Amino acid sequence: MARRYDPERRQRIIDAAIRVVRREGIGGLSHRSVAAEADVPLGSTTYHFASLDELLVAALRQTNASFSDTVFRNVRLDDPDRDLAADLARALGQWLAGDRGTNELEYELYLAALRKPVLRPIAQEWVASVTEALARRVDPATAHGVVALMDGVSLQVLLTDREYDEAYARTMLGRLLAGADGAAGAPDGGETGSPADPVAG
Amino acid sequence: MARRYDPERRQRIIDAAIRVVRREGIGGLSHRSVAAEADVPLGSTTYHFASLDELLVAALRQTNASFSDTVFRNVRLDDPDRDLAADLARALGQWLAGDRGTNELEYELYLAALRKPVLRPIAQEWVASVTEALARRVDPATAHGVVALMDGVSLQVLLTDREYDEAYARTMLGRLLAGADGAAGAPDGGETGSPADPVAG
Amino acid sequence: MARRYDPERRQRIIDAAIRVVRREGIGGLSHRSVAAEADVPLGSTTYHFASLDELLVAALRQTNASFSDTVFRNVRLDDPDRDLAADLARALGQWLAGDRGTNELEYELYLAALRKPVLRPIAQEWVASVTEALARRVDPATAHGVVALMDGVSLQVLLTDREYDEAYARTMLGRLLAGADGAAGAPDGGETGSPADPVAG
Amino acid sequence: MARRYDPERRQRIIDAAIRVVRREGIGGLSHRSVAAEADVPLGSTTYHFASLDELLVAALRQTNASFSDTVFRNVRLDDPDRDLAADLARALGQWLAGDRGTNELEYELYLAALRKPVLRPIAQEWVASVTEALARRVDPATAHGVVALMDGVSLQVLLTDREYDEAYARTMLGRLLAGADGAAGAPDGGETGSPADPVAG
DNA sequence: AATGAATGAGCATTCATTCAT
DNA sequence: TATGAATGAATGCTCATTCAT
């Protein structure tokens, strides 16, 4: 009875859901946990979101995709003289140095999309945003490879709790980028004939 | 019922758990679902495994880690003349061509390990088994990089339902391997000085 | 939305309610299901009908009472030379051959009227309309008996999914009608002295 | 914690369910209402019955089918000299004079079976038990007709809250029975040629 | 050693109704 | 007048775990 008329209600529920997932993981998201976090009656969460999945999608779509944000902040894609591998390795380091909950949130979405098809478009958008940005500097296949490598490196860091090794990441990224179309001295590009965009949708 | 004295009981429960996770994901694992799948009384599952997590660990530890199996079957690590990148790319293709449930099972472990520390050692073992095997041919850092790239590529294939492009994978793997210590003509390995083993356990 | 000023709104809600009950039964009737079916805002249903029961009554009162309609269409009550039993048996067959949902709708009203007194007058009206019409040809007690028999026969057909047997129905109806006051050769009407109208409202 | 180990638990839940349906109708049956009535924890009701329908079936199957009981108690089927119509009319009167809740319980099941196929076998059994017993005295078609008429008469009494008129029922039943195969002076049996058992399954 | 029974907590979801606008 | 928002109660059901036997 108390808090009738709360025009920001819907948004507050989304924000609460993000905090819950960050703290407890996707498995910890329930109408109840969200209602408690948002200090809102239980019925309110089902009123604004027809199903939990709908709420989850709304919440995840709103997360700023901090990974890609970090990349964009750290990488000067329009300056062809910059050491792209170094920029990317530094970006990865910055992202991994951030809040562990945030990292997990993002990665958990990524992996949860395996089982929940509704989440796939979101995950794909995230990947695409970075890939497309990289494609301004390198050929699309290399862009995909770079993103794959960054994903794999992040996963290993998160799963092992070990320190991120920026030098190692820079080395590996450098090797991928060295072979990109147009890069000087690409050592193995010739024989494989790296296709234009082998994984484009 | 009447199936007292069943020395295989414990094993049968584990097998059932694997089938359940493969089919429904970790979220579908419960004492009940496992008991039904194993055709065993409910109490039996709690008798043999003090908690669900314990059962989950037992089940995952037993999965053959089909990814590493496939790698080992397809890659001739002891023959330095083989095209390692091609072997790895083919292995990846074989794994991804297998049962989707199996692929997801393995990746879901990664997801769960993010939030359940008890699962991390298992995930780490899987990674380590491949990394260490690769380290017989290349330096440890490159081995890690290769595994990271393969993880990332697999993830993208699973998340996008797009076809796996073996040529693309071979190209990218080739670039990483070309820079490995001791590899002939590694063009960019020299300047980065690839650290001994930055992420070894 | 934007459909303000819709003078037919109330009627459209009633029509939607009938469709819902026909399809899903009374148990499926809710403000929400009706609002969705009528393509009308939720609040509209509670605005026009103070309670669900009120809506239910309005809906049921409007159903054409297809049973009595069918009877009236098939039976020539004003022609004393017609074989009334045959007409009624045919009418019953026609009704039962119709849409199962419609049959159930009408019978479900009976069910609901058992527990919801507000619905009883409607059910009684339906019965009365047929009984009174029949009373133009036979004494009221026989009219009631005929309606009771038809109800019983319908119920058994609906409950058993068995084929309706028109010859059987005609036989049984014929026996009831043969004993009616004024009927030629009523063999057992005399001794019981069929009361004037033992169940008339 | 208090009442562990209650070997009659399952039966007590069934009994409570019957009381609830008797009092509040099938619509009033819920895990919660039954748990409260049986003074048993909520989880207990779902433990013993996998679904509400299962509980409903168990409860209804156990009701003694008081209608057929009453018939069997009042009708001497093996004495061909008894006035069968009078016996049946009296039985119907006794049943209707009983507890209203019990009457409704039985009839509600009957009608609920329209929408819930799981209930149909029970309803059919009830009908069959009376029909088969009657068939020891009259041809099967007449037996079906008699049961249909009794059903219809009961329905009208329950729906109108009016007094049951035994003389009227005896008259109508008498007309049906007078036409039965083998009955002396069956007035209309000849022309219709009443089939052997037109509604047998 | 093994298990059926038990139970309290929690789950997603539906709902009739109220009410501020 | 009309309605979107709100909410507390209830629903069927699942579950991990405990425990008496």
Tell me what the structure shows.
4 copies of one chain form a homotetramer. Helix content of chain A is 65%, strand content 0%. Chain A folds into 2 domains: 9-62, Orthogonal Bundle (Arc Repressor Mutant, subunit A), CATH 1.10.10.60; 66-182, Orthogonal Bundle (Tetracycline Repressor, domain 2). Chain A has 201 residues and is mainly α. Chain A has helices at residues 9-24, 31-38, 42-48, 52-62, 66-74, 84-97, 100-112, 120-134, 140-160, 166-178, 189-192. Chain A starts with 8 loop residues before the first helix and ends in a 9-residue tail after the last helix. The interface between A and B is large, with 56 and 55 residues. The structure holds a DNA duplex (21 and 21 nucleotides).
How big is the Rg of chain A? 20 Å
And the CATH topology of the largest domain in chain A? Tetracycline Repressor, domain 2
Most strands sheet of chain A: none
> How many β strands of chain A by DSSP?
0
CATH class of the largest domain in chain A: Mainly Alpha
How is this structure best summarized?
Chain A is mostly helical and 201 residues long.
Explain the layout of strands and helices.
The structure is a homotetramer of 201-residue chains.
Chain A: H1 9-24, H2 31-38, H3 42-48, H4 52-62, H5 66-74, H6 84-97, H7 100-112, H8 120-134, H9 140-160, H10 166-178, H11 189-192
Helix pairs in contact in A: 1-2, 1-4, 1-7, 2-3, 5-6, 5-8, 6-10, 8-9, 9-10
The first copy, chain A, binds a DNA duplex (21 and 21 nucleotides) through helix 3.
What descriptors fit this protein?
disordered C terminus, DNA-binding, homotetramer, Tetracycline Repressor, domain 2, Arc Repressor Mutant, subunit A, 201 residues, 2 domains, mainly alpha, elongated, 65% helix
